[in-house]
Design brief:
Layout (H helix, E strand, L loop, with lengths): L7 E2 L10 H11 L24 H6 L2 E2 L7 E2 L6 H16 L17 H9 L9 E6 L1 H7 L12 H22 L6 E6 L16 H17 L3 E6 L5 H6 L4 E4 L1 H8 L3 H9 L3 E7 L10 H17 L4 H6 L1 E5 L8 H19 L2
Parallel strand pairs: 1-9, 4-5, 5-6, 6-7, 7-8, 8-9
Antiparallel strand pairs: 2-3
Length: 354
């Protein structure tokens, strides 16, 4: 894996803009080392966490969108078996590298204006050494989408398999497509739904299965030449992610550091294997107004020292860390989002001593 500069800055994905070029301008200005393509959920629900990653399933008809409720799987359709066969045929063609088969998993233009604006207009800057993409993770997607009876798709083995496979190939397609810039591509698998693990409402979630399902996506990213990362903006059992094949683990250091720090043994092992931590130290809420970059740097240094005291090697910890917002900024105003990106850049520069 190509070495990432210590405390380099990047973003999670979503921004509140409805004008794609303006969104790209924000990213280029503040995240020159590791820019990402902008997800634009305020344009329409198609651009959101769920819609963007179910475009193919909706096109085939496996997912129904009748406007009366959130899109859902309807396994009672008379032609369900035929639609299912069609999906698996596309999947097999993609993994067998049949010409242009992977393109069937591409985001349609109306689902990803930010992505296509990035492809068309992005020009690497003087200090750009990586680019970054993102995809909704299979656990979050599976727990969020339901079947016709409003039961989460994740708890139906057939539907869960569809979800994992579509995410796997969308991630692979992203890495392949972004390779045109001839820069290493980081791809985060966004898994906010992992907060559900261990809760009484989700007692059937099993860590071994979660690790295996995430690894299917991580392996697909790696096989395409990308660097797999995972982002969880809440608390979870971090040992699952440390055991996975993710190379970068992104967490909300602003709100959840204390719980994350409990995994000092796993953090050490992860860093020893060459993994990176992405510190979401910049709050993506109104709290950004009262937290200057200097305050955030002080907080970050205190957190680093906490881990060093726990025995985590200082050199690896500091050399294998990134700076990010705690989550995406898609729900904020454009003014607050710019404050978040400004602070992210400034925290990065201070930590790098530049």
């Amino acid at each position: 894996m190509t070495k990432i500069p210590a405390f380099a800055a990047t973003g999670i994905g979503s921004v509140p803009h409805t004008n794609p070029p303006e969104a790209l301008k924000l990213i280029n200005e503040y995240l020159e080392t590791i820019p990402h393509w902008p997800q634009l959920p305020k344009i329409s629900s198609l651009e959101g966490l769920i819609g963007q990653n179910t475009a193919l399933l909706a096109k085939i008809g496996l997912i129904v969108n009748n406007g009366q409720r959130a899109p859902y799987f309807d396994t009672t359709q008379p032609d369900w078996a035929e639609k299912l066969t069609h999906f698996y045929s596309l999947y097999l063609e993609a993994i067998e590298n049949i010409e242009k088969a992977l393109d069937k998993f591409a985001y349609p233009a109306e689902y990803a204006a930010g992505f296509y604006t990035f492809l068309e207009h992005f020009k690497p800057g003087k200090y750009t050494c990586f680019i970054k993409g993102h995809v909704t993770g299979p656990i979050t997607l599976g727990l969020t989408i339901t079947d016709q009876d409003r039961r989460s798709a994740y708890y139906n083995s057939e539907l869960k398999d569809i979800v994992i496979k579509v995410v796997e190939q969308e991630a692979r397609w992203q890495v392949k497509t972004m390779s045109r810039f001839q820069l290493p591509t980081i791809l985060f698998v966004d898994e906010p739904g992992l907060y559900s693990y261990g809760q009484s409402t989700h007692i059937t979630l099993k860590s071994e299965e979660i690790i295996s399902e995430l690894n299917q996506v991580f392996n697909s990213i790696s096989a395409a030449g990308g660097i797999p990362g995972v982002h969880c903006c809440a608390s979870t059992d971090w040992s699952m992610l440390f055991q996975s094949k993710a190379k970068i683990i992104s967490f909300d250091a602003f709100e959840y550091f204390d719980k994350f720090a409990a995994y000092s043994y796993e953090i050490t092992d992860f860093l020893e294997r060459g993994g990176y931590l992405a510190w979401g130290i910049v709050p993506t809420s109104g709290k950004i107004i009262s937290h200057s970059p200097e305050i955030l740097v002080k907080m970050l240094n205190e957190q680093l020292n906490t881990l060093i005291i726990k025995g985590i090697p200082e050199d690896k910890l500091k050399n294998q860390s990134l700076v990010t917002p705690s989550c995406g900024t898609g729900t904020l105003s454009t003014e607050l989002a710019e404050k978040v990106y400004t602070a992210t850049k400034q925290v990065s520069k201070i930590m790098q001593g530049t």
